[in-house]
């Protein structure tokens, strides 16, 4: 079943990157919260600079009742807004496969609580900067990984979405089972995001430094080791080793900084700097809950989880 | 040997509180770093408000060569400045017993590295606010605990200092062995200071909350349990249980806040808010080094130590 019409829910960095690219291959609608945002997109289209460079015309609305039926919904809100978005979509866009791209675990279940859906899980490491409602800069052009969720749809459907994303100029890879990739990212995120949020450091080389007892990389490695033990107990064989992902990301970051680019600021640190509620419940919280369910001790993840939660109450 | 002349090194909150009170019972000199500070003290005396209320005339200088010999030196610098202060004092004020009051462990050894001294260890939970060079407000009027250090002087000498402090209007208690009290404070400080520094929270009731899995008090309790295991391995029977100290301090704080007072801001959080180098190496760092020496695992203290150290590099 070809994908001819797409709805993207949420026009943050990631939603904007998906919407602008997809608008080149399919009729694309963006569901926003602010009327000014929808108007800017509908009148000017959405400009992408950086790794891509074009302006895409698309449809945008704040009114979910105005959405046509579609083949695909990309739920591109923060994890903290998934439940609200799923409420808005309940009973709407009925033919669509819904793709969740949130950090952590649990977004699919939140969507399903509002009605049966064909669900595709996805994770993305794309990043960018939102310059305005109608202009997003594409920085990190990494693959979106996706796969059918819990038997609600097929691997073939995930492959169709992969082809659409690639035809639109994005990088993507479908898996028959996303969990190995999802868990790799979960462990990476649960560690790097909380450590960044607590130290105020972007993802810099200190995250991989292990020479001295006081070095931060030792904590990062210990946190990832705890995460790997939980994955193993869950029967998940990881797609990538989170510690190697960390070391590679830090090295790549150093090269880019040598060329004048900024170090990557993990989203949880952005949230802390803006004194916003973070996604920690969906990331580290999800990992701790899985560990508890499986009987795996994760004292360090519990520690950083409690610290970030407490930090949120300090504002 | 009566104590007739005292030198206080450092005119921060704690140094000012000691100097002003002692000036009522002994000839008192303050060694400062800034000339304007010494001039203000010498011309106006030092005013104390709050729990005490008086102005004490005293001597002050920035020049250690101008100090007369004395019976007692109170080293009232931050732990990070002890080595510098000991360097300035090397060979000077030769008859004095030197009392260290720093947070953490190790100040006495830093002093001794600059020459043999009669040393008294002390810990204090006094707190206050420095309104100007010549005015300090006395808030928390808790006991100074003190005792002879490693056979360099006698319990009787510590008792003489206790009597002087009490005669000056301060609260004090001498112990034949300070380590039980010093370790109680070390474990309390290593935990409360780092947790405050990382969360941005003053010492509020969340530090004692343990009902929910995500509650911060569970981390506080786990950190203190690690510390208690180190003390036990060091052969130290604690003077007070740090967790009970924490619960009591939080309750007292709640009562005071109900009367409009502010919650206590631990010094490490003050340092973090001012983007200053913290005392973490002397507090949590000292505890971690002792744990390593004794072969006691302290993964949570290592975690918060690494996080605070990394935070210091983020500025």
Quickly describe the structure.
2 copies of one chain form a homodimer. In chain A, helix 6 crosses helix 8 and helix 10 (284-294) runs antiparallel to helix 11.
Structure explained in plain terms:
- 2 copies of one chain form a homodimer.
- Chain A has 315 residues and is an alpha/beta fold.
- Chain A is 43% helix and 18% strand.
- Chain A has 11 helices and 12 strands.
- In chain A, the strands form 2 sheets. An 8-stranded mixed sheet of chain A has the order 5-2-1-6-7-8-11-12. In chain A, strands 4-3-10-9 form a 4-stranded mixed sheet.
- In chain A, strand 9 and strand 10 form a beta hairpin.
- The longest helix of chain A has 21 residues.
- The model of chain A has no long low-confidence stretch (mean pLDDT 95).
Q: What is the H-and-E element order of chain A?
A: EHEHEEEEHEHEEEEHEHHHHHH
Count of DSSP E strands of chain A? 12
Work out the helicity level of chain A.
40-55%
Output the radius of gyration of chain A.
19 Å
Q: Report low-confidence residues of chain A grouped into runs of 5 or more.
A: none
Termini separation of chain A comes to 49 Å
What is the global morphology of chain A?
globular
